[in-house]
Amino acid sequence: MSFSLIPQLMVESLTDLTPQLLQARGVRFLMLDFDNTIVPYTTNEPTREMEQWLQQMQASPIGLCVVSNSRKSRVVTFCRARGIPCITHSRKPFQKGIRQCAAQFGLELCHAALAGDQIYTDVLGANCAGAVSILVRPIHLHNIWLRLRHLAERPFIAMGKKRSEQV
To answer: Which domains does the chain have, with CATH numbers?
Structure first.
């Protein structure tokens, strides 16, 4: 429960996370950001690899829930079609959505992780909540605002590479 912008774990893609890796870190439940972590902002369709990963994770002992700041119905529609619970309007980095997820699933946040593509929302939110923070490389930086945000995150990504385990 510390204010930190440094991820504890970094991966190129969400599909690099395995149940074994998560369990080795004591993680029993994985909260997922949606946009630019599971699918790009520009589509609702995951890649075949992502679809297979979601199915593998659902078949594993690791619990899943999408925790998204989005207010768009596309998140709910996507999750409902795949049988994945979701929480929208989560207000990351604030604790609203993370705490709602913990309450809904009876989680001890020390055994949960939050994977997402943004330092200032996903990593900070996870670290402040006491969950494992996992930074995923953004799928697609399709506009100038996303590129500028990513540029502002670079110092923390560099520190994360030095301090964290990179998969």
So the answer is: 9-166 (3.40.50.1000)
Least Cα distance to 68 among 53, 85, 51 occurs for 85
Residue 90, φ and ψ in degrees, nearest 5: -75, -20
- Bridge partners of 39? 35
Average pLDDT over residues 108-123: 95
Task: State the pTM of this model.
Answer: 0.88
| Interatomic CA distance for residues 101 and 65, integer angstroms | 8
Q: Say if CB 82 and CB 75 are below 8 A apart.
A: no
HSE of 132 in the Cβ direction (CA atoms, 13 Å)? 25
Higher pLDDT, 146 or 53: 53
The pLDDT assigned to 106 comes to 97
Cα–Cα dist 145/25, whole Å:
34
